[in-house]
Amino acid sequence: MKRPIAMAFAITLIAATQAGADQLTIREFRSVPLSRPNLTVPRSSATSDAISGVRKQETSTSEPDPYLLFPVAGVIDQDLYIAYYVDLDSGPGVLAFNCSKLSYDGNTGDDPYIRGFREEDIGVPVFAAIGGTVAGVHNGEPDHNTDMNPARIANHVAILHGTNQVADYVHLRKDTLVQVGDVVTAGTQIGWVGSSGQSSGPHVHFESQLAGVPYEAMAGPCRAGRSNFSVQPNVSMNPFVAGVALSSNTFDNPPLPPDDSIITTGTFIKGSQNVYLRIDIANVSSATDYTLQLTSPAGTVSSATGIFSQYQQEFLAASFWLTMQLDTTGTWTLKLSVGGTKTEIPFRVVNASTEIVNHPPNPLSASIDPISAGGVAVCRANSVLLADPDYDVVAYSYVWTANGSIVRTVTSAARADALPQQYANAHNQLTCTVSAFDGLAQTPPSQAFAEVSPAPARRHAAGH
239 vs 40, which has greater pLDDT? Predict the structure, then answer.
C-alpha cells in the first residue's frame, strides 16, 4: 500500500509528555520542512528573452486582465498549499498580500506545493490561468530534484496575454503539453506539477508580470486594489492537516520523501506494535502544539502532547514512532488536535496477517462549481481528508462531457480538475464523472451536472 508524502531532512527531535502511556508511547518525533524558498528561478535563455522582450514592447499603467482560475489543480488548504507569496516588502524584510510573513526576500511569484513525488508521478495538472499565446517553453529537465541547486534550469511555460501581460509557470514536470506559438484558452492544461530546477519538492512557481514587472495577483490588507482573480481563492492562516499516513515502517529511513515509497497500511495485528504516523501540516508556528489521543474499541483513552517545531514552518512533515498496546480487535482511532483543528485517524486491529486486505478508497461525490459563459468550469472530487482507509495514494479519473460529447479525460492526483474556457458557452450542458482508484480497487463513479448560465456583467473580484 502506497502513500504520497514529501520530506527533506530531519531537523528537530522534541520530546512529548504522556498520559495513559500503558497503551500509547511516543518513542520519537521528528519534524522537517516540506517547502523551502527558491532563491533563484533559473529559466532557459529563450524564455528569459521572450519575457524581457515584453518590457521592451510596451509599458503600461493599466490593470492586468483577471485570471479565471488558480492554475494548479487541487483544493487549496486541502491537497494544495501555497507556501509563499510575492514579497511586497521593498527592503530586506518580507511581506505577503495578507500581511503575513508567508514569503521570502525578493520572491516574485506564488508557490503552491503538493505533497510528494507519488502525486507528481500520477499527475497534478497545471492550467493556463488566462488565455494567450505561448511565448516560451523549456522542457526535458529532471523533475524529481530536491537539492536546491541554483544552477539547475527548470521546466517552464510562459504565456503572453495581449501585449504586456505574462503568466509564467515554473518547476514543471518534464512532459509539458504546449509549444511556443500555441494559442491557449484559460483552463487549458499546459503541463504538470514537478520539481525541476532549484527545488526541494514538487510545486509550481506561478509568476505574474505586467510590462515586465512582477506583481501579486492576490488582493488583501497589505496589497490594496482589486484582485487579479475573477474569484480569488480563499486561503487560511490557521494550522491545518493536509495529509496523514500510517505504516509499520519508519518514515525516517532513506530514501527520504519526497521519494515516498514507504508502504502504508490501515490495519495492524493484535498485540504490542510499533506504529509509524506521518502528518503533513501547514501554517505551523514555533508555538504550535499538538495532542494525540488513542481510543480503543472499548473506549479506553491514552494521550500524549508536544510541539511540532522549534521554528516557524510554512509546511512541514511530522513523523511519530509510536508504541501501542493493541489488546483488542476492531477499529481504533488516533485523534490529533493541532491549534484547534481536530483530525481522526482510524485503523483496524486484527488477529492475524491473513486478515489484512486492501480496502477501496472512501466514497466521493462529484460537484461542478457554478459556471457562467466565458468562465472556466471546475469539477471537485469531494471526500473526507483520509481519501483511502489503507492510507494509499489515490488517483482520480475525471471524464468531462459538453452537450453529450466527451471533451476531456484525465487521471490526476488532485481533488479538482478544470475544463478549457471554450466549453463554457451559455446553456451548454456539462457533466463531470469522477472515480478514485488506489491501484487495486476503485470507487463507484459519481457524476455532476451543470448548465452554463449567461455571462454576468464583467467585474474584478474584491480583495479578500
Answer: 239
